[in-house]
Write a structure and sequence with these properties.
six-stranded mixed beta sheet; alpha/beta; two-stranded antiparallel sheet; single chain
């Protein structure tokens, strides 16, 4: 099945630091690849019109700074160290989380996001619950916490799930699989104790069977997995979704998009994300993957009445030879 959704970037990025100026990859083929402009009519003034119910708003977030980011920048070989297995956030990373949380509240996103999807690794789940979760837990809170106190050897208090959107862990949005222990996850049983209110039901295996110690996932394989993830998103009913994931996953997945756009827009879509950066985008369902009907469209003509438009009447008149 050919699927060609086309994302449109919204102007609500949050960048806590400098963004890499590395260019965007251009996969040679992809079922999601944007086509060339079909006609002058469709691209007048560089615009595109699409039904609202065929669109989803995605708030894409790269996790905050992890210990592997620090050690790996000092020495690339550190990424192969088991000392960095499922790396957690640094104290600086938690400060980045606090700043992004403040932005999400100030911008109103905390009131509109219906679902948070997160990669099942420690650093992404810490970032997700810290940014989009409730407040610190109190003794009076009866609901399970999104995160228990002290997870990842941090000094963080437990984070409540009260008044927070649902959180779902999804393996499709993990970082490159294999070789680097920082990208290997723990057992789901362990995570359930750490993050009681995150839903892990979509993950089939308790242990990490996807990560291989001697095989690193290729960039094109990550990109294909990313496109599969986007296709899966259309099985969800939610229209506004936050996704907390990883630099490599975002870069290679998004590089398939924007090839029919202005170079600046292409760059806004697929340059590397900074730690704890948020970019808001719209993804369009051109291939009718989703089946939702519009909740706002109204068919009209209720009660029934004559409503022939004058321009149609003119055409009919000319067509009849009058």
């Amino acid at each position: 099945m050919l699927i060609t959704p086309n994302p449109i970037l919204l102007n609500s990025n949050f960048v806590p630091g400098s963004i890499s100026k590395r260019g965007c990859a251009s996969p040679s083929s992809s079922p999601f690849l944007c086509s060339s402009y079909p006609s002058d009519m469709d691209t007048a003034a560089g615009q595109i019109l699409y039904p609202l119910h065929r669109c989803k708003t995605l708030h894409l977030v790269r996790h905050a700074q992890g210990f592997h980011n620090v050690e790996g920048e000092k020495n690339f070989e550190a990424y192969k160290s088991y000392d960095l297995f499922d790396a957690s956030l640094t104290p600086l990373g938690w400060k980045q989380v606090e700043n992004l949380r403040g932005h999400v509240k100030a911008s109103g996103l905390s009131k509109t996001i219906e679902l948070v999807i997160v990669s099942p690794l420690l650093r992404t789940m810490q970032t997700a619950v810290g940014v989009f979760g409730g407040e610190a837990c109190t003794d009076e809170t009866s609901v399970p916490p999104l995160m228990n106190a002290g997870v990842g050897d941090s000094d963080r208090q437990a984070i409540s799930s009260l008044n927070a959107p649902p959180f779902i862990a999804v393996e499709l949005c993990r970082e490159h699989l294999g070789v680097h222990p920082c990208d290997k996850r723990r057992s789901i049983s362990d995570y359930r104790h750490m993050f009681p209110a995150i839903d892990f039901s979509l993950i089939e295996n308790d242990e990490d069977i996807l990560w291989k110690p001697d095989i690193r996932e290729k960039n094109e394989e990550v990109a294909a997995r990313g496109l599969k993830f986007l296709e899966w998103l259309w099985t969800r009913k939610e229209k506004e979704i936050a996704v907390v994931t990883h630099s490599g996953f975002l870069f290679h997945s998004l590089s398939a998009f924007g090839n029919d756009c202005h170079p600046t827009v292409k760059s806004e879509i697929c340059t590397h994300f900074a730690n704890c950066e948020l970019r808001s985008m719209v993804v369009v369902d051109k291939g009718l993957i989703g089946s939702d009907e519009s909740s706002t469209n109204y068919s009209g003509k209720i009660p029934y009445g004559l409503d022939l438009p004058s321009d149609v009447a003119d055409e009919n008149h000319i067509g009849n030879g009058n």
